[in-house]
């Protein structure tokens, strides 16, 4: 029997520089982990994306925490208004009842029995109406009444969970402000400062950082608990409201419409019960993941006590090369030297930088602090990178191109060495014949604007502006311009209103920022890329963690796919990034689902594929775990996305391995069993039509 899912909570040392170094790590390359097909369901890793990003204090994490704080405040106001409305219902019902009684008294007055009106038929008809209206209005008023426990449950939620969140948020804000202050002061110290004093400052910063990371992880857990309890509250209140109506009308044969709605409500309640039980089983994993990440950060950020690591006078080319750094990819914070237009006095700003797939770029938190923006991606072959010994600050290096010169500061000597070495390693890799043949050399030789103009950095310092352009002219004269999402939405406004705006997102992304919805919709304009960008940052975080740990059982299926959808591949190549990426025969109601699939799986989606079936369910990858998510099926693959308590996992399977599909209808859900060559996958379907899903599976 399959065993339980494992949890990938620990840091990945060679992906993100701020995580723990493990000499035995087997994840040195940014490739999806690929378990053998026979153990498909035995080693199912869940990625603690929220904890990873919190430990990194990435732009995605900060933006998401700020966005969710605004949303929680809005939800609190909504719950207050909802509770106020509940309180008013008895008063209004009393007024309605008083009016209806008055109306009924006037409907059949006693004087109509005195002659001119026919008693046998007309008066009998009026009396029948009187009796009927008394029954209908009485039942209606009874149905509109609200149980006081609903009001009490809302008040309890606000008094307990919301207040607890606000206290946690306040601690987070206090520690964040303290950390930002200490970090800025520490890195602004002059190189002439006594190294022993700098070591003491580093130790103090280390303690403040520990407190901030602890508060950040506390906030992540509190938001997950708040979300879980908010869903439980709203689904429970909704079910109670409907149960009252059904108890009144259900036995009176009111028709199929109300029964259909009541059945749907019961299925939603069943989903909530199943989901609550499933995430309770993950609670211990969540706490273990939190502890592992926090302990790893304590090791990673432990400052050096070697006084020579703080002496700028002994730094030279030989000492800078004294590092065992094989990586060709790096992500992390740097301080950048810049100016404002109003003053020539230098300022140093915190920027998230990355080197990956031949380019260097920055991600920044928007001026509103609620979403992530990006700069241009600079090909590293255009960059002349060297140590900057003339800066007054420690650990600085310079990046010089024909268009700009920027000075960056690392936090430590080890980080300075690492950044310089990764630049060197990546340049060496790109100079090889393989990089030239696969086009990576051309990428590393160019400069590329943000993918979507709406996500371009709007930070107004001088260097930030130099690093961000709406369009760039390459060496060969080719102009590369950012696409405009707003123009695309305006051009197809009717289509987006009908099929997109209220349908995205159906999934719960790993991160939610102010522009997550726009980021997902932008995938109708852009092809997937492994290079970090603002779209990924507003959905996944600093990288697409799901692709690093993708459960891909389809890797051996390439022989089955050769030449299969050449027509659709050609169609996509000819129409991508223009107004007609989807063929005319493609169902419009599936466009939003296809876009969400591409936003989640990015480069894992094969050329020529489109989503032809999608449904939400609770998925059982083994005998002990149930994971809520959404399944996307194309003409050749099944893609499954799971998210719960901040854990995320991606799965990709080849439909050619499918054996059969069974369907069993339960009281409040439909159980589907999908058999493939590796075993059986069980799915509980609550809202979608399982019979239709099964039929489509057989067609595929």
Automatic annotation (TrEMBL):
Pfam families per UniProt: BAR_3, PH
Disordered: annotated span: 1-35
Any one cellular-component term (Gene Ontology): cytoplasm
SMART domains: PH
Organism superkingdom: Eukaryota
InterPro entries given in the database record: AH/BAR_dom_sf, BAR_dom, PH-like_dom_sf, PH_domain, Sip3/Lam1_BAR, Sip3_PH
SUPFAM superfamilies referenced in this protein's UniProt entry, alphabetically: BAR/IMD domain-like (SSF103657), PH domain-like (SSF50729)
Transmembrane segments: 638-664
Protein name per the record: PH domain family protein
Organism: Candida albicans (Yeast)
